[in-house]
Amino acid sequence: MARVGVFVCFCGANIADFVDVPAVVEEAKKIKEVKYAIDYKYMCSDPGQGMIRDAIVAHRLTSIVVAACSPRMHEKTFRKALSDAGMNPYLLEVANIREHSSWVHQKDKKAATEKSSDLIRMAVAKSMANEQLHEISVPVTKRALVIGGGIAGIQAALDIADARIPVVLVEKSPSIGGKMAQLDETFPTLDCSQCILTPKMVDVASHPYIELLPYSEVLELDGYVGNYKVKIKRKASYVNFDTCTGCGACWQKCPVKVPNEFNMGIDKRKAIYSPFPQAVPNKPVIDAEHCTMLIKGKCGICAKVCEKGSIDYTMQDEIIEREIGAVVVATGYDLWDPKPYEEYGVGRYKDIITSLEFERMVSASGPTGGVPVRPSDGKIPKSVVFIKCVGSRDEAKGIEYCSKICCMYTAKHAMLLHHKVHDSHAYIFYMDIRAAGKGYEEFVKRAQVETAATYLRGRVSKIYKKGDKLMVRGEDAQIGQVVEVEADLVVLATAVYPYKDNSDLARLLGISYDKYGFLSEAHPKLRPVETAKAGIFLAGCTQAPKDIPETVAQASATAAKVCGLFAGDTMLKDPMVSTVNTDYCTGCQNCVTVCPYQAIITEEIPLGHGSKEIRTVAKINEGVCQGCGSCVAICRSMAIDLAGFTDMQIINEIVSI
Amino acid sequence: MIALGQQIENKFLVAVNKKSSNNILDCYQCGKCVSTCPVSSFMDFSPREIMQMIKLGLKEETYMANSMWFCLTCAACSGRCPREIDIPRVMESIRHLAIAENINPDDPRVKNIRKFHEIFLDMIKRYGRNYELRMMAEFNIRTRNLFKDIHLAPKALLKGKIPIGNEKVKSAKAIKRMFEIAEKLEKTQ
Amino acid sequence: MTKLTYFPGCSAHGTSEEFDSTLKLVMKSLDVEMEELPDWNCCGATSAHVMTENLALALPLRNLVLAEKLSNKTMGIACASCYSRMKSTKVEMDNHPELAKRINSTIIEEGEYQGSVDVKSMLQFFYEDFGTEAIAEKVTYPLQGLKIACYYGCLLTRPKAITQFDSPEYPMSMDNIVESLGATATPFDFKTECCGASFSISDTEIVLSLSGTILEMAKESGAHLIAVACPLCQSNLDMRQPDIEKKNGTKYDMPVMYITQLMALAFGYPVQDLKPSKHIVPIEQALSHIGEEIETPEVKKKPKKAVQAESEVE
Hints:
The structure holds 3 protein chains of 3 kinds.
Chain A: E1 4-9, H1 13-16, H2 21-29, E2 34-40, H3 46-58, E3 63-68, H4 71-84, E4 92-96, H5 98-102, H6 109-127, E5 136-139, E6 144-147, H7 151-162, E7 167-170, E8 185-186, E9 191-192, H8 193-206, E10 210-213, E11 216-224, E12 227-234, H9 249-253, E13 256-259, E14 268-270, E15 272-273, E16 285-286, H10 292-296, H11 301-305, E17 318-324, E18 326-329, E19 334-335, E20 352-354, H12 355-362, E21 383-390, H13 406-420, E22 425-430, H14 440-451, E23 454-457, E24 460-466, E25 469-476, E26 481-487, E27 489-494, E28 496-497, H15 502-509, E29 536-538, H16 548-565, E30 570-573, E31 578-580, H17 590-594, E32 600-606, E33 614-620, H18 630-634, E34 640-642, H19 647-655
Parallel strand pairs in A: 1-2, 1-3, 3-4, 6-7, 6-18, 7-10, 18-29, 20-27, 21-22, 21-27, 22-23
Antiparallel strand pairs in A: 5-30, 8-9, 11-12, 12-17, 13-14, 15-16, 19-28, 24-25, 25-26, 31-34, 32-33
Chain B: H1 11-20, H2 32-36, H3 47-55, H4 59-64, H5 67-70, H6 76-80, H7 87-100, H8 108-127, H9 132-142, H10 152-158, H11 172-188
Helix pairs in contact in B: 1-7, 8-9, 8-11
Chain C: E1 2-7, H1 17-29, E2 32-36, H2 45-51, H3 54-68, E3 74-77, H4 80-95, H5 97-104, E4 118-121, H6 122-137, E5 147-150, H7 160-163, H8 173-180, E6 184-185, H9 199-202, H10 204-220, E7 225-228, H11 231-239, H12 241-248, E8 256-258, H13 259-266, H14 284-287, H15 298-308, E9 312-313
Parallel strand pairs in C: 1-2, 1-3, 3-4, 5-6, 5-7, 7-8
Helix pairs in contact in C: 1-13, 2-3, 3-4, 4-5, 6-8, 10-12
């Protein structure tokens, strides 16, 4: 005989203001199977849970209905209360009388009260068919995939590997290091970026738990949390890394010059190249698009000068597979192309550059030996205008958000300019100075005072050329006057923007992204490093613009998440999965087609008891099944049922009202 | 000093937003319009300041400014506004609201500008088209500035730049009727 | 033969007669038959929309409705200001049925607006309906050696939502046409800055200041003359030039010519047909540069090389 307990929550005023809770309790008591019903201010609180535990024992209850908020919110909480009282947690039903009733019917208390009673009646009816369920245990592959070898990927990989969990680190370019390797000094301490980064890069290369795959891309991801399978393309480098010593003879002799991406095209690299001196791995690759040997079959100089015979023009792309249990996506950011700023003459004037170009110029190892120069004539600029929010916060140009790092690095640029060109002056057009971070406001103040940079509050409206100067016009809203700065060089703080193919990667991984292509976290506040897909985590600017400290913190957080996931040998999983009644299954395989998780396969069973003939039926891999119910809906012979949502449970609900 | 806090609802902002089909609250005071505007330096208050004045609900002060009378509707500002506010449309709206409430700035230049447009419209009402010489002459007579541009006159006349003759639209009646109905519409809106 | 409804605008029969007459010559060469809109009226110019909302739409609307009675698909408009008023009205009428009904009531005797006629500026018509290649084919007297700063003003390309033509910041259509005539278009940053427009009469100071900057920058760009496609721009830059020179204490000697005058010249019409006497700043001196050797423009060669230099072999 069923003995149901009903627990109705006030949720403070959230439910009680719009639903007559005591009346609902009285109504519940009228249901035949309900042996106990009570209300409480906060059912989710410790005393509230205590009431449930005590009642289970005192009233020998066989199933529990909690009428409260959405099950998404506290189902787990109440299940635990059942377990603690020695009851199977899946004998719980939650009637959502907050989101589904009190919140949406705030203007009609009577109707809301009646609806709440109906919802409870349905939950009670459903609970009549509830069965004891048990969590499913799935094996876990304890190896993590990290996509992207910038500071985010490097930090995540090192932290995971330090916990003795193997990591596969995939980087698309020939070296890890990412944007941070291109920076000169970093705010707010003016640490040399490469000096603090390169030791970490070396650690990655030498770490026994890290398999570094440079010049590689992720092609496919199959499986589910704890049991993913990834296909990775290792692009042909045409250099045998095992024998290459990185001596550099090949790139010194290579006759083909290509704009150097690492230096933002300011100088040239060769067709066989290693992107920068501290590259990891410090082995060159051949750029197949520009190598004349690979295009026309002529040249072959690099092979001739290589003493180790490491050059192999016949090398092909290779596709490899790895089994992994979790993924950290750390693909970083690109700089937004400021071309739409026609009013600035972008593209027409050489002496308008981006902040990353300026960063390369002032870098001691950069293409101009650490001194900024005008690209048009190579002269050292004295009057330099920095324009913030180029793209960022400009809806007309398509970007609503703040890029977060520009205020800080522009202050830094003013300092670097001041350090490198003593008789120079920086003019900074800004809208707001956003310096929220430890030591940040202090840093901005220091930059303003030490460099005496002129901060002008306003957006630049036009840049035009007069003689060999660029005239930069804007309003200084502080005095309400239009100002025009005669500049030698203009530096645009262009927006932090996702890589063009970030959304392709998201689709490939099965995770969501926003309208710009930034990858979406599961919850903006409480699950900032997880995606909605179990076992896939986000680190760094692939999720949103952020600076180095924040990126590193987020990367370490993903490592903690991965380690937590891998803490046991198996993983427990909700038992709400589909099962096939093979007696009814006709083997039509419609379910195989509709399953979005590839969780259904087919198996062959004897036609009848002891029969030698066989027939094909569907079989569900409970490890993969996510309990979406698509197969239940498509099955014509009603052979599939979903645990926790069986046909009988649903029919009971419908019949009860 | 501007006293705030006495009125909670900003009726002026609501009226301007409605009339202009824009939202002044979008403005974040970057001033890009100000340095774009070819005539902002001639204005009592720059477009940016006008936006803030509307946000503050300073109706009288806004109407008394010459700013919206100086707007050339060149649309350079709106083309660059990062918040995509149609600033000329806003200027036009506050100008029309000020005309409807019959509030005129003291600036004599505004009086000239206004006079010019009135003469222009009057001429269209009469002839259906505009005759530049008559336009200039009437303007100078009505603004009591008989000799303005007089140095241009012989040159322009000699060169045939500004013809003396008039032509008239045949359906002058239709134009007159249009003016009458439009005026009525203006009042009922 | 292409047929086109022609809206000359008030100034075509006044200050910009040379625009009108050379436009007709150019159209003859391009084999376009222009049918002047019968009984057209003033578009209301700046004044209508400064003062009233309804007239600003009603005046252009009457012309649009009249144009629909002809069989031509497009109405070409000479004056930039008329074009702007007419195109704005068309966009408003097409997108706001309520408003359209209200405005149409002012001229209901003329008929109901259908939205069947397209509105283009002459510049847009040349550029889109002919293109630079077709124009280049008609050139019999290349303007080689002539350096021209193309000045578009405000209304031919702005606002983008209304005009849907070229760039509002750095348009190139006129530059390309000028180059197809054999001339050189100079890099000119002030091609869409306002000249002061109708303040020419009501507040001349403003025009002197704004047009002054445009002249100065055109000179700075190395141009022999300025090309325009708007009568008001032409008169502000040309007729006011002596005053501007006096005010700024410099000599610009910068003739301001309509694009149609330049086209007519390149198409083989004699200089007299351009009505040079209409210009306050004489055009003859500038036109004498035609036929001069162009200095091997380094600027031009370099970018070409740079493109190839994507990958260069030593």
